[in-house]
Design a protein that fits this description.
The chain is an alpha+beta fold and 104 residues long. The protein is built from 3 helices and 5 strands, in the order βββαββαα. It has one domain: Beta Barrel (OB fold (Dihydrolipoamide Acetyltransferase, E2P)), CATH 2.40.50.140. It has helices spanning 51-54, 86-95, 99-103, and strands spanning 22-31, 34-39, 44-48, 64-69, 77-83.
Length: 104
């Protein structure tokens, strides 16, 4: 039936950080596609949403995102690659990938 939860468990595909990618939590929206993100490596970066994903996903404060630092100014700036939904965030917590964010 449409709109009914059948109770079957769905497989959740989660995009995991690769080399030179970090998980982060959006701390503040700055406008003009820019925001401050607190990352798992301890840095707070000024990140932007590339035009490729700008109109496809909406990002608010408190969301968990995947970022890739720029080659230049890698400790200060980066690009947002992905936004995780609630089910994916709970999976990341169970796997221990968000421990560094929870400690701070």
């Amino acid at each position: 039936m449409k709109g009914k939860n059948s109770g079957d468990q769905q497989i959740i595909r989660v995009r995991v950080p690769r080399d030179n990618q970090f998980l982060g939590e959006v701390e503040q929206m700055l406008g003009n596609r820019r925001m401050l993100v607190r990352c798992t490596d301890g840095h707070t970066r000024l990140c932007r949403i590339p035009g490729k994903i700008r109109k496809r996903i909406w990002i608010k404060e408190g969301y968990i995102v995947l970022i890739e630092p720029w080659e230049v100014q890698s400790d200060e700036r980066g690009d947002i690659l992905w936004r995780y939904n609630k089910g994916q965030v709970s999976w990341l917590k169970r796997k221990g990938l968000l421990k560094k964010l929870d400690e701070e």
